[in-house]
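wait is this the right file?? whatever heres the structure
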């Protein structure tokens, strides 16, 4: 972990107290910083959103599936023993460790306690990490020396853990920001907008599902159902309440306004248009619902992008070509490989080098490096295509078997094989060649078929 200068401490002291819901009353011997936006509680709530959950799985799965190799960087008498030690520590826990470290995409950082022990490795007692214990981010804070800005450990609940027993991985480390910036923080504004749009959609559905009644009434008073003389406006209010709350129909007398009664005799006015009481309904425009749906789709896309996944690689497409979707997928794969490389480099610096120094001395630092395999193995894809083509159209199987080490190819694809692959493929190839040579000899020795009979001459006159 990069050390921070004293000038970097104070700005970070005001960060992240929102994240951990703490007050600014840190101890004098050690200080801890906090990010400015979001809280762990909000981030956990965001993980329940379907679009974020889908993006999270798509982001994590390739990195969890990618294998690791353990390589010596230089010639050294201890290289083989050191390689075996590192592989013994990491190989059994690789997938679980990657999954736990990827929680930094959720919260910005991922803290661990390193539980050391002694284990027999090829007959020799070695110091090893027995367990990578993930710590709750809500209850864990980094301890930073207030004078030098050096990271000196973490405080989990009431227990302080020294630096040498801590793995602190942070996402998107910028300028020594000890808290990191997770994908959830990038997605948080759009998750909030999505939630607000859903809330507005609920209001729209409520309005659209029940049309608003509009009662037109004549000025003056009328007798209600009980016979009491009541102002017509009060009767109109009762009608609206009856329609809205009780979901019941109403009855109205066919009464005309007095000023039109004399005009009706002329026949110039439609009686239906001259009624004193009318009930109409105001209905919501259907286009408003389409706009809300468009906003929800837009926020979904931005949340997926915040997780560094192009939406065409994950969400259902509406336009574009298959080639464009493949390009988006390649961008997603490249992003995952880059993140995984940074994560493994942190392990090399924070854990691997310390184990090498404990077991083989300080000079052994850097002797062994963990290297992640590509998220998508291009060589494996090519072999799969070649074998599929040969099995479906075996015209060139002899050429394939003579140029490709078939036993190694099948081993790389992890396909079960018989014990003696080479002899079987040689027999198949020799048999095919012999059969082709026999057919060629038959074609050379065969006599050509006789020519067809000549047509009879034309009759002469």
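ok assuming it is, sequence goes like this
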């Amino acid at each position: 972990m990069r050390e921070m200068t004293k000038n970097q401490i104070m700005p970070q002291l005001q960060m992240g107290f929102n994240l951990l819901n703490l007050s600014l009353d840190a101890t004098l011997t050690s200080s801890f910083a906090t990010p400015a936006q979001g809280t762990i509680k909000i981030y956990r709530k965001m993980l329940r959103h379907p679009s974020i959950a889908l993006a999270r799985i798509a982001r994590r799965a390739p990195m969890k599936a990618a294998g690791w190799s353990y390589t010596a960087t230089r010639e050294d008498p201890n290289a083989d023993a050191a390689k075996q030690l590192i592989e013994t520590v990491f190989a059994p826990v690789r997938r679980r460790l990657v999954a736990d470290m990827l929680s930094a995409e959720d919260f910005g950082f991922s803290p661990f306690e390193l539980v050391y022990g002694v284990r027999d490795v090829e007959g020799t007692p070695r110091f090893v990490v027995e367990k990578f214990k993930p710590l709750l981010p809500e209850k864990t804070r980094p301890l930073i020396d207030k004078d030098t800005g050096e990271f000196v450990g973490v405080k989990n609940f009431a227990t302080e853990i020294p630096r040498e027993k801590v793995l602190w991985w942070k996402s998107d480390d910028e300028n020594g920001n000890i808290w990191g910036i997770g994908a959830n923080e990038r997605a948080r504004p759009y998750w909030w907008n999505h939630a607000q749009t859903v809330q507005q959609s609920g209001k729209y559905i409520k309005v659209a599902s029940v049309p608003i009644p509009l009662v037109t009434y004549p000025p003056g008073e009328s007798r209600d159902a009980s016979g009491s003389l009541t102002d017509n406006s009060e009767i109109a209010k009762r009608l609206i309440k009856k329609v809205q709350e009780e979901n019941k129909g109403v009855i109205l007398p066919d009464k005309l306004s007095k000023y039109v009664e004399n005009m009706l005799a002329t026949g110039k006015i439609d009686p239906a248009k001259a009624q004193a009481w009318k009930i109409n309904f105001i209905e919501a425009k259907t286009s408003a619902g389409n706009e809300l749906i468009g906003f929800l789709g837009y926020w979904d896309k931005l949340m997926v992008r915040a997780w560094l996944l192009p939406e065409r690689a994950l969400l259902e497409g509406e336009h574009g070509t298959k080639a464009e979707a493949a390009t988006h997928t390649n961008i997603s794969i490249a992003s995952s490989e880059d993140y995984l490389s940074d994560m493994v480099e942190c392990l090399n610096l924070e854990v691997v080098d310390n184990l090498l120094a404990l077991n083989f001395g300080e000079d052994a630092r850097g002797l062994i490096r963990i290297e992640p395999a590509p998220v998508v193995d291009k060589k494996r894809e090519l072999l799969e295509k070649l074998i599929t083509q040969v099995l479906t159209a075996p015209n060139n199987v002899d050429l394939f078997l003579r140029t490709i080490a078939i036993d190694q190819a099948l081993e790389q694809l992890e396909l079960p094989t018989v014990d003696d692959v080479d002899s079987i493929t040689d027999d198949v190839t020799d048999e095919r060649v012999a059969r082709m040579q026999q057919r060629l000899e038959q074609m050379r020795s065969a006599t050509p078929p006789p020519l067809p009979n000549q047509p009879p001459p034309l009759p002469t006159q």
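Residues 212-282 form one domain. so i think its the right one actually
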